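Document type: protein sequence-to-structure record

Subject area: structural biology

Format: plain text, a pair of labelled lines:
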Amino acid sequence: MRKHYHFVGIGGIGMSALARILLRKGEKVSGSDAKGSSALEQLKQEGAEVTVGHSPKNVRKPHAVIYSTDVPQDNLELVYAKKEKIPLLHRSELLAQMMTGYAPILVTGTHGKTTTAALLAHTLVEAGFDPSFAIGGYLNGTNTNGRYGKGLYFAIEADESDGSFLNYPSFSAIITNLEHDHMNYWKSEKALLDAFEQFASQVGSKKHLFWCYDDILLRSLNLDGYSYGFNEHADLVINNFQQIKWKMTFDLTFEGKHYLNLEIPLIGAHNVLNSAAVFGLGIKLDVPEASLRKGLITFKGVGRRVEKKGETGNIEIYDDYAHHPTEIFATLRAIRSATRGKRIVVAFQPHRYSRTQYCLDDYADAFEYADQVIVTDIYAARETPIPEITPERICQQVKADGFRDIQFVKRDNLTQYLSQFLKPGDVLITMGAGDITTVGPAVLNILMT
């Protein structure tokens, strides 16, 4: 019997992936979102019934109403579903159900899980394994974040931010790293470490668990499985890493065998680590080496991960999702290596007041590889503002640590300001998890007219 699922906030990156998979399985999907978007239009074209705006009228006797942690409990559709006793499923509960009968492969970690999960999914597809996957980003080339396959494996990005990564069964997993983030949820380092330790313990096959040895906190947990990293004491060791403009080459040594001259069209040491994890897991999944190499070299990346928006007048414009200082540092270091001699201009939108408060002392190091930094208004993401946490405060803190070329520009003025500030030879990178992603194309449009 065909089931009907109604998604509250269907346009979200995690929700749309599940909706897309259900549509391809032949289920009926409806949903609503607060505002229109290209994601909604794409889902409409794929068969979903989508409404802009939340109303009880949108909930038409589905088998279940799906919600995420981001949906407030006083949402009109949730309230109506409770009143009418329509079953409610958190996104993680639905995903756990959807993975029944598969061998789930989970990718988690503070940073890099979207790219790693996307690379894993792409590699399995290229190798003919016909996997299902749900990713927190759109794969460049296919422009999808969810896939229904008939193969054994179901690859997902497992979100640690709300603890939901502990809700999933897992056959295999990759843990990219572990850092203090989302501490408004975790409250303490002990709670965070305990959760990652529990996650690792729940992996069904420890010979299909890979974790980053270079990460001090992960190493402290003494996890089972295979470690990977640049450190010579890892089980899978990376050697001879080189970044050549916008691609990387490296060697791997794993279980006594050498894998030479691997290549991937991504930049940064962090993406070598991500690639090594996927390659190592692929070996243990019996993916042929030739298929693994092909998966790496044909990977086109993920939207909003150093995504080139365009170029005009010898000005290049990129967009990136980085919003945590560690991510910003790694991304800018890689861009510096790829664009030597050019002025790097960063337009940064801080994400959430709680994160900005927690990371305030770390921004100076984050921008080490930038020439000019422009900070705009904090993207609240439904958080209540913290009065003393402001973008001006970030600028003051960074200047106090010795970085002078930083300034605040209001979000409403940012596009026009950048269009006048940029000059030939510049590389602009917009950074943040909020609506700053729209700035690059808008600046490009002004520069081209």
Remarks:
- The mean pLDDT is 97.
- DSSP finds 16 helices and 21 strands in the chain.
- The chain has three domains: 4-90, 99-297, 307-448.
- The longest strand covers residues 236-244.
